[in-house]
Amino acid sequence: MHPIVKPALRRGWRDLNTVQFGMAPAHAMVLGPMDTATGSFLDLLNGTRGMPLLRDEGRRMGLPDGHVDGLVQRLARSGLLDDATGGGPAADALRDKKAVLERLRPDLASLSLVASEPGDAIKRLAARRSLRVQVRGAGRVGVVLASLLAGAGVGEVDVRDVGCVEPGDVAPGGLPAESIGERREEAARRAVRRAAPDRPPRTSSRRTSSKETSSKENETEKASERGLSLVILTPRDGLAVHAPDPAAAETLITSGTPHLYAGVVEGTGVVGPLVLPGDTGCAGCLDQGRVDRDPTWPRLVAQWRSGQQRQVQACDLALAAGVAGVAAGHALAFLDGELPSSAGARWEASVPGFDWHARPVWSHPACPCGAAEKAKGERTSEDAGPHETMAGQQPYAARLSGTWRAHV
User: Fold this and answer.
1) What is the Cα–Cα distance from 91 to 106, expressed in whole angstroms?
2) How far is CA 115 from CA 112, 337, 391, in A?
């Protein structure tokens, strides 16, 4: 082990015996009592020395025997220590790619704030390289989001869409103006490759006839989805964001593939829900819940989907970029083993205020996804009373116990 005090946190003395690590309240920590000699020794915890050499340095500084080991253990327990050589073989392979790691240094520093164990941050960063994510939709939100994931070190980010790039698809960080007229998939995948610090090999893009494609996709769709860590649905059509069609996600539900919705509808950005099949509310649950609250909902959706005259989507660049950024953050948190707040909820923000707020998506007993039945089975008598939520369900954070963390 080569201990290093997490460099993402700035250090300052609050008084002669107390050190504050970090500035922002979310991750700052105060540690004390700490004498001046120990404070000076902290500068040696920079990842260049192993424990034997650190003990020798401690003795030369007049620190008592065992003090160095005690300090290292104390810092590790507080989540303030990293290991410059930790993380396992995958982390070592990433360190060997020096140019790639330099591109990802800020991401590594950010991960160190939430990864408490020494060496865990680079382990998570290295694990991203083995993950497969599919983004369905190559518009202003989808391509920027896919590029963010690739730039953050996700190994394979595939973008799916049809048609050709239109002028309104162009966005900073997404599709460039020179791609107008090209096939959306090809242009999007090129943008993703440009964003990736370690470009994966290009895959064949051969197209088959529509009949051959349809039969083959029907046979292989479920199997291919099982190899995906996450699917992100970013439709260019605002209706598909506002009222996602449950049928479009049936194979994702049956294959057990986690999926996240993100997009813009009439000046409102939407991120979520993150659907963990069988655990959290899905598009079907969302639809059933709306029918319960508004009996006219099916009539409205039928009219909206009835092939009316094509309209320009209200999706300004700032809102699209915000949705892409928030959705990428939720996706990366999930891929890194955390449970983001979009699990069982939709985050929404509208122009001009950009005030993000969450709307719960409850699992519905009439939905065949099975999430409501599982929630009902997991409830106990102590969950009743003040801990009850809408439809008598536990909050998702209480119900999900690491099942999907193991999935990825």
Assistant:
1) 16
2) 5, 10, 35
Structure confidence by residue, pLDDT tens digits, 164-214: 999 999 999 999 999 999 999 999 999 999 999 986 545 444 443 334 444
Helical pair 120-128 and 105-114, crossing angle rounded to 10 deg: 120
Helix axes 51-60, 67-77, angle to 10 degrees: 120
Q: Quickly tell me which residue has 């209706």 as its tokens.
A: 239
Nearest in space to 269 (alpha carbons), one of 324, 230, 340: 324
* Superfamily, domain 129-161+187-407: NAD(P)-binding Rossmann-like Domain (3.40.50.720)
Q: Kindly tell me the sign of the dihedral angle through the C-alpha atoms of 138, 139, 142, 145.
A: positive
Please, are residues 200 and 190 in contact by the beta-carbon 8 Å criterion?
A: no
Alpha-carbon torsion angle 389, 392, 393, 395, nearest 10: 10
Fold for the domain defined by 3-85:
Outer Surface Protein A; domain 3 (3.90.930)
CA distance 142 to 128: 19
What are the backbone angles phi and psi of residue 3, rounded to the nearest 5°? -65, 145
Amino acid letter, 154: V
- One DSSP character per residue, 32-58 reads ----HHHHHHGGG-BSS--HHHHHHHH
Helical (H) or strand (E) element with 120: helix 120-128
Q: How far is the C-alpha of 201 from the C-alpha of 203, rounded, in Å?
A: 6
What's the sign of the alpha-carbon dihedral 127, 128, 132, 133? positive
Rounded to whole angstroms, how far apart are CA atoms 136 and 305?
19
C-alpha–C-alpha distance, residues 47 and 147, integer Å: 32
Domain positions in the chain: 3-85, 129-161+187-407
For residue 243, what are its two tokens? 């009222």
The rounded mean pLDDT for the chain is 86
The H or E element spanning position 82 is strand 81-83
Q: Which pLDDT tens digit goes with each residue over 96-108?
A: 999 999 999 999 9
**Omega before 235 within 30 of 0, i.e. cis:** no
- Are the beta carbons of 315 and 140 closer than 8 angstroms? yes
Task: Say if CB 154 and CB 128 are below 8 A apart.
Answer: yes
Q: CA torsion sign, 375 to 379 to 383 to 385?
A: positive
